[in-house]
Amino acid sequence: MRPVRTVAGAPVAKSATPLVTYGLIALNILFFGITAAQAGSVVDNFRSELFLRWALVPTLVADGEWFRVIGSGFLHWGPLHLALNMFALYIVGIQLEPVLGRVRMLSIYLVSLIGGSAAGLLLEPVNTVGAGASGAVYGMFGAIAVTMFRLRMNPTQILVIIGINVLLSLSIPGVSLWVHLGGLLAGTSATLGVLFVPQWVGAKSQESARTIGWVSIGVVGLASAAAIAAAAMMIG
Length: 236
Hints:
- By secondary structure, this protein is mainly alpha-helical.
- The protein has helices spanning 19-39, 49-54, 58-62, 68-71, 78-100, 102-123, 134-150, 156-171, 177-195, 197-200, 206-235.
- The chain has a single domain (19-235), classed as Rhomboid-like (Rhomboid-like fold).
């Protein structure tokens, strides 16, 4: 008997608990707690050793500290920044994870994070210090919008939320619009690859559709990595 699969080709999980969503939230809270403890302050946690070592600093990434591309996505500028991102991740993640499957959702989350970092490195001033899960969360916004189109649901609400958040990115000082848009583009593209590209290229089986989806995620990840490498060369 073939396993029951979601529209994304993922096996239907035996447990409905969104473990990836909860795990990502737990990791973000954990790293925030570490930075707060090191800094001796919840508000000024950015003064911690971990924050200084992981924050997205373009010149240091260009010097070979590539781990900052991902590590910066698990740091936050104070409790409000953390709370807003984790609330958004929770709301979107618990809806996405059952459809995409745990591994696909985690992959798209990470690709979105990398895509956001890539855009920040390419388009933000070199003296910028970046941190936060916002790029990845914007990728999840794009992913859920694509998923709603695929399921023939009305995407108006999520599109309005995306639009409002983009406007806020433009109006609030210190918020990185390019990181947000880079994450949004990466997450949207990767999810299109999972949910629509197999149909567009005429995949003839579920197995080939799943393969095309994974290849699509990989292509987005490679494109983001190439953008990071290009940014590093420009900065260096």
